[in-house]
Amino acid sequence: MNTLIEHVNQVDVTEHSKLKSPPLQTARVIGHVTATMKHPSMHGLKLVVLQPLDINNEPDEFPQLAIDPLGARQGDYVFFTSDTKYIQEMTKRKDSPIRFSIQGVLDDQPEPSRKAPKRRT
Hints:
Elements: H1 2-9, H2 13-16, E1 25-33, E2 47-52, E3 64-67, E4 77-81, H3 84-91, E5 100-105
Parallel strand pairs: 3-5
Antiparallel strand pairs: 1-2, 1-4, 2-3, 4-5
């Protein structure tokens, strides 16, 4: 599984320009969102907060808001994308403000890397 994660996280930009859709990135679901008001295109969609991860499963960038058509749980490791064509198909609208969507939940949930505790001297 680590090989797949390494490949997904290390897609070369020049290689990506040849692809038809944006590459996938791994993230961990760190929360769910409850919105009292939201854009009409988001009606009925579950929103989650994702923490993008680097190759070592460490936080990379700021947390992001994403739609979750798969029902990921808090703590799950997922693949997400910014493929707007997929989002437009899902919401049936071209004016949707949604930028990210979950594309898959990892079968094997990796253990978060644990740093050695600091020793008191």
